[in-house]
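Lab meeting prep.
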Amino acid sequence: MSFISYLKDGINLGSIYAIIALGYTMVYGIAKMLNFAHGDVIMVGAFVILTAITRGGMSPVLAVVISIIFCTILGVVVEKVAYRPLRKASSNLAVLITAIGVSYLLQNLALLIFGADAKSFVNVINVPSLELFGGQLVIKGVTIVTVIACIIIMVGLTLFVQKTKPGRAMQAVSEDRDAAQLMGVNVNATISLTFAIGSGLAAIAGLLLCSAYPTLTPYTGAMPGIKAFVAAVFGGIGSIPGAMVGGILLGIIEIFGRAYISSQVADAIVFGVLIIVLLVKPTGLFGKNIQEKV
């Protein structure tokens, strides 16, 4: 039964990674830029929920809605101020340095406002646990909500990209930005929408992450954000189904690594997966080889 319990925990953690990875893969798939500050937006979203409930006296539902709106606006502002000026830059190093700068800015603002002490996250998800096999296997309510939310978000994003006009504009920008602009697509607005969606998902990921692991600090989102990037690469960055599959597989690998190998090397195992994927299949499980035109 311990194997099934570990598998359940891995799927729970992997679903959180998958939601974060969906934000990464949306932004990269459209803007061809990696927003390494994405993990810190998760932290911001969690702090907004905590503050709205504990200091504002708001209901959990209203607090989550405010967090999503706040992070969505934050994503648009970050894209416009930090990333848009670099969009035509040929240097990936400039983009990376900017992303790291935004990450440190958000972390230090959180340190200034909330302090460095760990905060206990509030209980937001009140869903009863599910008992199986005569009570031998207990699936917590937050696990059920996390897995269902991951599936709904993946399906919703897929339908949005494939069936809606803004989604088709995203596909056009992803394929050829200049040609899309000639066809009347507002490239800036499309990329801003992509950052908005990714940042809104970060708020949901912050809620689920801190509900499963109820400790919040200004650095809470940093490591999960990096691991979610590994998940996005594992699944094939730019692929929505790939982000989900990669996230869940990575969560299972991490939990089983902690249980059967060593909790001290679990993170090393996760990053070892990234190295193996880059060596064996650089495009990831669902990625596509893109031929450069000359």
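Slide two material, second protein:
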Amino acid sequence: MEPLYRVQGGGPLRGDVGASGAKNAALPCLAATLLTAEPCTIRNLPDIADVGGLLAILSQLGAEVDHDPAAHRVTVRAAGPLAEAPPDQLVGNQRASFLVMGPLLAREGRGACAAPGGDLIGQRPLDVHLRGFRALGADVRTEAGRFVASGRLRGARMVLDYPSVLGTENLMLAAVRAEGETVIVNAAAEPEVAALADLLCAMGARIRGAGSHTITVTGVAALHGADYTLIPDRIEAGTFAVAAAITGGDVRIHDVRPRHLEALLSKLREIGVEIDEDDEALRVRRRGPLQATTAQAVPYPGLATDLQALVTTLLTQAEGVSTVNERVFENRLGYVAELRKMGARIVTAGSAAIVQGPTPLHGAVVQGLDVRASAALVVAALVADGETELRDVVHLERGYEDFGEKLRGLGAVIERRGVAPETPRA
């Protein structure tokens, strides 16, 4: 039986919940362990399918992987020799698998990877990665269905066509061992990019400006091992904040960095949600009605595209007409049809969702189309009348650790049934 969630709506969430380590920081940090023959330990590692998949790729490339999921820790020792490419069947499961290209190219002088898979949320071309490798002096071509990059890398100044998060990370991973200085202009500024830079610097890299739109990397001859703790997952924390707000609950979220969520918190306050924050925790409450608003999903520090579906879902319960614009991925509104099955009054116009509220939602059978859309449907189910059945929860479990269990701890009535397909393990 394919796994599914059954959610009984109607009750406010109350209590205390913690965010796991950041999925979107874990994946590039794991790829970075390929840059050195010495062991690297990553702590606060979320036990999710995407992490398991990338650890399997590292193992297949020749790294020794000592993973303790219960302790949220892994030690990777890529002593070598390393394979030049991961198995195609593993690459097809997630977009971040392409991040091994930068380290392999930097360390071995050659790296290859098939076109990666992942969520079907829009065009995410590899042009930023490939043009950046070429700017660093690599010969980039395709062979037998794989992208291949080879050559001695030298620092360069490059201007990215758009601030791609994975593209910025892959170019940083390649540039840390290139000869001379690399300047990446129009770089992604997300906290996860800065987290990768923090790990690389702990390994001996020289990086300035990570977290801004101009990053400078001075190449070094070699990197060493490191012991690094991941930042909290801002998207998971934001998910719980929206869940508290939509149910009229009172939830304290700990292990979070509120400054990474400023755009979301500002928007929640604007529509009527009460938020108290300190350095590592949030308290989210709603006592009155929500007000309609306009929101745009844009690169950091704006509202994260990964939170767009959640904000749209919340606005089904706001008074008036709201408009949410998706400015990052053009196909990220596919979940709207699933929300309509639950009674939501939403129309789409290009990349905009126009939401009429407040709308009573009701239980239905819905399908999770990607990681964040699945989370949004669970959040909708929490406030719906009756039972909702969410199918294809394998998407959800790629990015959220113990999601159902954490929600049950806040009072949600949610049950998981079925057995998930086995995740490749290192």
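Talking points for slide two:
The radius of gyration is 21 Å.
DSSP finds 14 helices and 24 strands in the chain.
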